[in-house]
Predict the structure.
Amino acid sequence: MAPANIFYDDDADISLLKGKTILFIGYGNQGRAQALNFRDTLNYTKTDATILIANLKDSYADRAHEDGFEVTQDWAKATSLADVIFLLVPDQVQPELFNSKIGPSMKPGATVVIASGYNVFYKLLDVPKEANVVMAAPRMIGTSVRTRFVSNAGYPCFVSVEQDATGNAHELALAISRGIGATKAGAIESSAREETLIDLFAEQALWPTVINAFTEAYKLLQANGCSNEALVHELYYSMEPAEIFEKCAEDGFVKQLVYHSKVSQFGQLNGALSLDGSEFASRFERVLKHQIIEGEFMRNFSKMEKSGTLDKEIELLFETAGKTELAVGEKLVFERLGHSYGAAVGKANDRH
Ligand code: NDP
């Protein structure tokens, strides 16, 4: 497998956006962060371009106004003016909004920017043939996209060209990525397919396994006399696991074990290496092939979204997950100590 290309600020020619109209559709988590970054980059590079925000008339629109942007609710008109269109509404909202109001109003040669591969990989957007489609998909929540930009640190991002109508979509993708601050730390060349496979696999195979393992571990240890307080602290409340993940990023997924005791090192490595991974592997493969690549998850999800049952289904899942020993024990601990380890320490200090 060839190493992926990584693009930096110097690879991007921001002047390609000179005189252009950049439209952000949605001013939520990503929309606000990316629009603010873009405006700062235009100012910093002395690039003259116009930024417009399209959002329903509500508190998000008010926030965009307060941030000094021109905000419109006329999606079609704003789209007809735009050279670059950031599609930053939730993934489940995009097909209906794009296919009814955005796609039909786009001018030829305009560029649609997606922040997630989902709708393009599953071909849910009717993008006109004369339009470019590029992806700039930050691997961060919006607040980090903004704070890391402000502190000049940059953030990881996947970039790709999904449809090249003008012949320079790659250069535009890099200029756009630079605009949102994504080439500062290096934007990794990817694709909507790769982004979707990795993202959905983590959500539908890897993290469910982790959630299930924690839930079962909690139940078993509790049945063997361990208290809620001890278990919640050990499993995550102390923030030790969060620190371990930080060390994984700094030193390596396995190498960070050098910070643990010999008992822990032997226990963890010997335990992991003697596990039979084939059970995981065959379940993982099923999820990847049927649920993700063949689109079973997408079809079920779209059906729930269309029939208006999605929110209810998610509520029911939260309700069920709230009944496990871990969730019940955690509630008791949070009620007693507060919702963070810092709060618990604060309470302890108050008593001195
Ligand atoms: P948010 O939920 O934070 O933002 C939603 C925006 O869309 C708000 O402005 C909201 O405004 C608007 N919106 C919601 N429903 C509708 C509707 N029916 N019609 C018109 N506007 C609507 O979304 P995110 O920023 O989280 O996600 C945007 C994109 O970024 C997605 O593709 C997502 O996958 C991607 N992404 C998200 C990341 C994250 O951490 N959140 C990380 C990386 C990528 P209002 O509700 O006021 O109408």
Observations:
- The beta strands are 6-7, 21-25, 50-54, 70-72, 84-87, 111-114, 132-138, 157-163, 187-189.
- The two ends are 59 Å apart (CA to CA).
- The pocket of NDP is lined by residues 26-31, 55-56, 58, 60, 88-91, 93, 97, 115-116, 137-138, 141-142 (CB under 6 Å).
- The first helix runs from residue 29 to 44.
